[in-house]
Specification:
By secondary structure, this protein is of the alpha+beta class. The protein has seven helices and nine strands, in the order H-H-E-H-H-E-E-H-E-E-H-E-H-E-E-E.
């Protein structure tokens, strides 16, 4: 009996050690990925660690891309430290909004943000959440500019482009460095849509508008021939989304 009790004690201690190591690993993953992904996505990765393996597949996603207007001119006028502070004010607020809507911050490209809805996790309302997120990001520019004003920095405005389509999504890289990314025609198309925006605008492709389930407020639409895209693309200027998310922009020109 004594031998049996000692053996059970050894197994119990070993189990506690394994659980402690697992908790340490989970805390590390939360710290690492928690800055880029929502808590829900991080929890899914923890529950399904095979999702971190190399590989990829086709999936339909809604891609959101932002860009600060006249940012190059600001870089020429401001000291490097002030440029970094301005970017940090902007990116911290925008990242918080994206994560609040369950989006994935896929990449920061200078002053641009690339966010995904539908990868690595898919939900039925990915398109609606992406549109509501974009509108909320435009509203959140007021918060960014309040931070900039307090820091003696110039106000900014941004344009947002949204597009929906099939991409290849997966972990790209090597065993030393991985990056979750999406590639394909629709990523490029999103960048083209964003390039058409003015400050304060949310422009969406017809693919996104048709895929949305919530009622949208659209002020104008028009077909555009884009570089590298064979067919003309119908683009819509979105000013609001009704239903569950209920987000509306101020009248055009009133938010900078």
């Amino acid at each position: 009996r004594l031998s049996s009790c000692l053996e059970r004690k050894r197994w119990h201690d070993r189990e506690l050690t394994i659980l402690d190591e697992l908790e340490k690993r989970n805390r590390f993953i939360r710290r690492t990925f928690g800055r880029y992904l929502s808590d829900e996505i991080v929890n899914t990765l923890l529950e399904h660690p095979d999702g971190l393996d190399l590989g990829g597949g086709y999936r339909t996603v809604t891609i959101l891309m932002t860009d600060i207007r006249n940012f190059t001119d600001m870089c020429e006028r401001l000291d490097p430290e002030r440029v970094v502070k301005l970017l940090n004010n902007y990116l911290s607020v925008m990242t918080r909004v994206i994560m609040a809507y369950g989006g994935t911050v896929d990449e920061f490209i200078g002053d641009a943000v690339l966010a995904l809805f539908g990868a690595p996790m898919q939900r039925p309302d990915d398109v609606d959440r992406a549109i509501a997120c974009a509108l909320s990001m435009q509203l959140a520019i007021e918060e960014v500019n309040a931070l900039n004003k307090a820091d003696g920095l110039p106000e900014i405005c941004m344009g947002i482009g949204i597009n929906t389509g099939e991409v290849i999504a997966g972990n790209i890289g090597s065993d030393k460095r991985l990056k979750y990314a999406v590639v394909g025609r629709h990523v490029n198309l999103t960048a083209r849509v964003e390039a058409l925006t003015e400050g304060g605008q949310v422009l969406a492709s017809d693919y996104t508008v048709h895929a949305a389930s919530a009622p949208l407020i659209i002020t104008s639409s028009g077909s555009v021939q884009m570089k590298g895209i064979r067919e003309e693309i119908l683009i819509h200027d979105i000013r609001g989304i009704a239903g569950e998310y209920n987000v509306f922009l101020k009248p055009a020109g009133s938010n900078g």
